[in-house]
Amino acid sequence: MADAVRFSAPGRINLIGEHTDYNLGFALPIAVGERTTVTLCPDDSDTLTVCSDRSPDPVVVPHSTTPGQIGGWAAYVAGVVWALRDAGHPVPGGTMSITGGVEMGAGLASSAALECAVLGALLTATGRPVERLDQAHIARRAENDYVGAPTGLLDQLAILFAEPKHAQLIDFRDNTTRSVVFDPDAHDLALLLINSHSAHHHSGGEYAARRASCERAAAALGVASLRDLHDRHDRHVDGEEALDAMTESEDRRRARHIVTENRRVLQTVAALGDNDFGEVGRLLTESHASMRDDFGITTEHIDLIADTAVAAGALGARMTGGGFGGCVIALVSSAGVDPVREAVLATLDRAGHRPPTVSHTRPGPGAGPW
Ligand code: GLA
């Protein structure tokens, strides 16, 4: 068969629009510079022997694999093999080696980076072109139906469609993406990524519980998805007013996060278009409060990081990703980078937390053959 192929996929930061994907709403992600790289030496066999820098033992994935057969990190690889074959595509055999550059459990979509890198390598080896949207669906099936994590399509679309100096406005109603210029350097700003190193998991119950709350709220309001409340908003019936039809409850608060978050995503896009970064920062901070107070997915540790960054001068800060740990992003003037970094490190130290890693991040390229 063909020569060795190499393919890599980045992690992602969601600038704003959290848990909106499975509610058919909006999100605004970028790719980070950290990437997971897959090298595949294809052959004509019907197994893949997979090595990872995160595990001493190789795992053999037969092409005939089915959900439940392989667990751990290799389940993401096996899931892609299974979903690709199930979609009617050929899969090569061979040996695959994985270098995982995206930290696991940090809310940076390391799972989707692995899925998209594996998928890209397999497709490159067979030479079959598959549209990026179809790739996103295949990678998501690996995660939902093989691994068993009930996640939406945000991570895969973000990783496959990302572009340097841009964010992608995703509309999950029809899974379309639109590039939006996001180039903090050009405005003397920095996007800081503050990694708490407190890991999260999406195959656990909390993510699924949020999904279930949203589905119950939509059913109680007589709409197919909470996105429909936003569309009513477009027709001059306020999406939040529509929630008045529900009595105050946990489900109603969860739904309010989705309705207000969809609005904030579109407001952020408008503010970026106006170069109004003060407003962008305000929306980021408001999003964090909504995730904390309405959606209930932040932790005290994460709140402390976001609050400290804002108190130290950040234009805005919010947790990014599915929640319950992971990373905070902060939009900061270039002159504010050191004061924010120092304040966060000092405050977390005083509170007895492990030191976070604070890095300056920029929107990078999406998945590709490099
Ligand atoms: C995780 C999931 C995504 C999305 C985010 C929250 O990253 O994989 O589908 O729901 O959480 O926005």
Short characterization:
InterPro entries: Galactokinase, Galactokinase_CS, GalKase_N, GHMP_kinase_C_dom, GHMP_kinase_C_sf, GHMP_kinase_N_dom, Mevalonate/galactokinase, Ribosomal_Su5_D2-typ_SF. This protein has 370 residues and is α+β, with helices and mostly antiparallel strands.
Task: Write the CATH architecture name of the largest domain.
Answer: 2-Layer Sandwich
What is the topology, as strand order, of the major beta sheet? 1-3-6-4-5
In terms of DSSP E residues, the strand content is: 15-25%
Oligomeric state: single chain
Task: Please indicate the count of domains.
Answer: 2
CATH fold group of the largest domain: Alpha-Beta Plaits
Q: Could you state the order of secondary-structure elements as H and E?
A: EEEEEHEHHHEEEHHHHHHEEHE
Number of helices: 11
The largest pleated sheet is described as: 5 strands, mixed
